[in-house]
Amino acid sequence: MIDRRTLIAGAANAAALLLTRPALAAAVTPVEEELRISPTRTTTLFAWRPAVSRGTVVFSHGHGSWPARYEALATRLTAAGWTVIAPVHVDSMRYPDRAKFTMQASFGERIADLNAAIAGVPAEQPVVLVGHSFGTLSALCLGGALGYIAPFRAPRVKAVLGFSTPGKVPGLIQPAAYTTLAVPVMVVTGTEDRVPGFVADPADHLFVGETAPGPAYTIVAKGGAHELVADAAALARYAPAIDRFLSGYGSGDTKALAGLGKWTAPAGDRFVVKAA
Predict the structure, then answer these.
(1) DSSP conformation class of 206
(2) Are 183 and 215 a contacting pair, CB within 8 Å?
């Protein structure tokens, strides 16, 4: 027999759990839209839109990849109330005219894609950029990085969250690459985060947090590889830090920022904080 006191206690515990953990069951199905980049080029924009949006995440996928491969991340972000929009870049295996663009040319086109996506975000919506690998670099550029190449900074971008980086690409990533970053940044990487031909040493991914002015946060997952972003279980481990970072710097939630400063990484992982 379950008495009334037990039922009340159980209900209270359930309510507390719902208040502290995002409800990931209500998945949002993405819609595909046309995004005009220039008078001569369009691309597909994937959009995950929750019923009520607290802000917009503009997502940049990895080289050769495409937005649908990041369903686990998009689901978590929309469950937390963020609209997620992600253009298909010209280097994607799903871009129809991929063969027309060199890797060098795709860099500039990525910047154009992200700016076009931001331009379509309602003025009242805060904007944060999230990326993976080459997409992290694209996102960082709009946050003010690589200022020695061009003034990439997009004024509406409030923060950048990056999963892995393209590493220290010779000729592109110079020592001052991230010193011009004008927004807070968080990079999530792992001790096995390697990219054949680009990143032999996983420590290269720490370069953003080491050289950015700050605030800069780096999560290093023990055993985490380059596709960590697609691992739903791993994302759940770091959800408290990710949620607080986006809420704090994207939505201006001071309680979230305070919580981020007190967060500790799971056993075996590292959480490195660099203050402004």
Answers:
(1) G
(2) no
